[in-house]
Amino acid sequence: MSIKKFTLCNNEKKLIINFVNGEVAWLPFEYLRVFAPKLNNSAKQQPLIAHKKTVTLSAIENVGIHGYRFVFDDQHSAIYADEYLTVLIKEHKQRWQHYLAELAASGHSREAMIDITQL
Length: 119
Fold this sequence. Notes:
alpha+beta, NE0471 N-terminal domain-like, 3-stranded antiparallel β-sheet, globular
């Protein structure tokens, strides 16, 4: 599916994706950060990403045929191809439930490790 437009909803911490065919999908920032594409396709177990409940997607940059670079406020960035975004949309419920189960089993949390307040 070809992407027509992205809309960052910072209040709701979600990304709205409009497709050329008229379909609309949304994904939470935390979900996008937790399932950021890995740099390598190593068969090794990837570390569990925790403490990202309050993460914000701060910018999206077009990187041509490769996709879009998503820049998060925790200084992480990754390139998301159209195909990978489609997979994340289709598998959202299953991936999220599996992630929550892994998180609970590990004893980690979605909550930030420290609370930061801007005055």
